[in-house]
Each structure stands twice: as C-alpha cells, then as structure tokens.
C-alpha cells in the first residue's frame, strides 16, 4: 500500500501544479516575470482575440485554443508514441531477461541496456516530450484561470467564473478523464505496470470530479476539451499500429499453417 501511495506523488504534483499553486492574480497589461510576459500573457491575449472572432463566446475560444495548442505539440506526442511502440516490440525480450536474471538485478539492468542499445532505443525518450509539453499546457491553464473576462462570461448554462451548480460539468470531466486514462493504460507496454497504474487511473477521475465541483467552470471545460482531443488523437495515432500488428500476426499464422500443410503432404508421400 505504501508503494502505491509513493507512486501517486508525481500525479499529485502535476494536479497541484495545474490547480494553480502559482500566481492567481488576474492577467493585466502590466506583466512581471518571464512566465506571465512570455507564456501566460500571450495565451490570454489570444483567448480574447479568438473570443472576439467567435461571437464573443469564450467557451468556444477555449475550445479553439486548446485544439491549436494540442496540434502544435502533436509532433512531440507522435515521438512519444513511437517510443512506446518500440518498447512494446521489445517486451518479449525484456521479459526473458527479467526471468533469466531475476536474482541478479544489476546483471538484469545491464542486459536490458544492451538490448536497448542494439535496437537504438532510449528508454527515457518517451518522457522528454511530456516534460516539454507540460509548461505549455500549464501556461494555457493559467491563461484561462487568470483571464478576468472569462470569469464574467456566460456559456451555455454556465457562468465560467463560477462552479457548475448542476454538477454536469464535473461528471463529464470525470468520465472523459476515465476514458482517456483507460486508453493510455491499454497502450502501456508492460503488463505489470498496467496493474500498478490501475489504482492511479481509478483515483485520478475522482480527483478531477472533486476539483471540478469547486473550481470555476472554465477549468473543467478546458479539461473536457483536452480529454476529448486526447481520446480522438490516441485512437487515430494508435489504430494504424494496432492494425499492422494484427495484420502481421495473421500473415505469420498463415505462413505457419502453410508450412504445416506442406509438411503433412510431404509425410503422406
């Protein structure tokens, strides 16, 4: 149980960061510091411009800006996905090494690193795109949270500066977070890691639901948009690899059946 709690701390740190543990002061024309001047401020200005173009609807402006940002970081996401796929392909070999050197952790690590080098794979490469994405997404989050015009704006049944009184938005935010988490979990190359992460992915939607009940509606609205983009993105990026893997398996099975058929015919003569 203690180990599981320890595994939760990176997730908790990310959630606290996204919850606005930094400055909560409204963005104005007088901006101090690198963070507000070059990151949060320009994104807040872009939100105002998009809202002006979209019939003064900040709910739509948040959607469009979320899509723009996610498309800009799409190459990093693809790089991360390719790294995951390579790790998936190596899983049978990695499992053999883990089984062979289960009593010698140091030797196990050495053999695994040799395998990575043979296939020109950096096991940490999948983390780098995520680290680059996080400041951009946190800046977007802050631009929404600290834009005073959004707080006073109405969108659908919501006042974006107040929590949803009907809890519809928190429920949708939790459901989309759960779906996005399940999809991410299904892509994990390690079966043991999947079991370990299940606890986290069960807790995360609950945390999102609780926070969405307390935060201004603009924030869970952003979470929903981002989750939906991630779900669609993962489906289209992951589907070709899944299809090619199944197709490859079918070809392999077909070749195996053909070999058996030729062997049976040869034996019958």
Q: How many angstroms does the end-to-end distance come to?
A: 64 Å
Q: Describe the strand arrangement of the main beta sheet, using strand numbers.
A: 1-2
Number of strands: 2
Low-confidence stretches: 1-13, 15-21, 241-252
Order of helices and strands: HHHHHHHEEHHH
Write up what this structure looks like.
This protein is mostly helical and 269 residues long. The protein has one domain. Helix content is 78%, strand content 1%. The chain contains 10 helices and 2 strands. A two-stranded antiparallel ribbon has the order 1-2. α2 (33-53) crosses α3. It is elongated and about 65 Å long. Mean pLDDT is 76; it is low at 1-13, 15-21 and 241-252.
Features:
disordered N terminus; 10 helices; 1% strand; 2 strands; 269 residues; mainly alpha; two-stranded antiparallel sheet
Give the structure's gist in a few sentences:
By secondary structure, this protein is an all-alpha fold. It has one domain (27-262).
Write the layout of secondary structure elements.
Elements: H1 2-18, H2 33-53, H3 58-72, H4 74-100, H5 105-118, H6 127-145, H7 148-151, E1 154-155, E2 158-159, H8 168-186, H9 191-214, H10 218-268
Antiparallel strand pairs: 1-2
Helix pairs in contact: 1-9, 2-3, 2-6, 3-6, 3-10, 4-5, 4-6, 8-9, 8-10
């Amino acid at each position: 149980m203690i180990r599981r709690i320890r595994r939760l701390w990176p997730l908790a740190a990310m959630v606290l960061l996204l919850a606005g543990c930094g400055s909560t002061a409204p963005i104005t024309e007088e901006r101090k510091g690198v963070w507000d001047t070059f990151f949060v401020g320009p994104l807040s200005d872009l939100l105002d411009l998009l809202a002006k173009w979209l019939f003064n609807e900040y709910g739509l402006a948040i959607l469009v800006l979320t899509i723009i940002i996610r498309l800009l970081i799409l190459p990093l996401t693809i790089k991360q996905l390719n790294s995951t796929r390579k790790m998936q392909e190596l899983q049978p070999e990695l499992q053999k090494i883990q089984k062979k050197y289960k009593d010698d952790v140091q030797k196990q690590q050495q053999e695994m690193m040799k395998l990575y080098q043979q296939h020109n794979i950096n096991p940490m490469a999948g983390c780098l795109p995520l680290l680059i994405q996080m400041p951009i997404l946190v800046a977007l989050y802050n631009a929404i949270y600290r834009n005073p015009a959004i707080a006073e704006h109405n969108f659908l049944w919501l006042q974006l500066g107040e929590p949803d009184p009907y809890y519809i938005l928190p429920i949708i935010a939790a459901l989309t977070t759960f779906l996005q988490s399940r999809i991410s979990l299904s892509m994990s190359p390690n079966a043991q890691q999947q079991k370990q992460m299940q606890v986290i992915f069960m807790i995360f939607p609950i945390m999102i639901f609780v926070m969405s009940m307390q935060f201004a509606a603009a924030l869970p609205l952003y979470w929903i948009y981002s989750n939906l983009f991630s779900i669609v993105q993962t489906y289209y990026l992951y589907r070709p690899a899944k299809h090619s893997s199944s197709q490859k398996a079918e070809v392999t099975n077909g070749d195996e059946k053909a070999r058996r058929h030729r062997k049976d015919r040869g034996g019958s003569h």
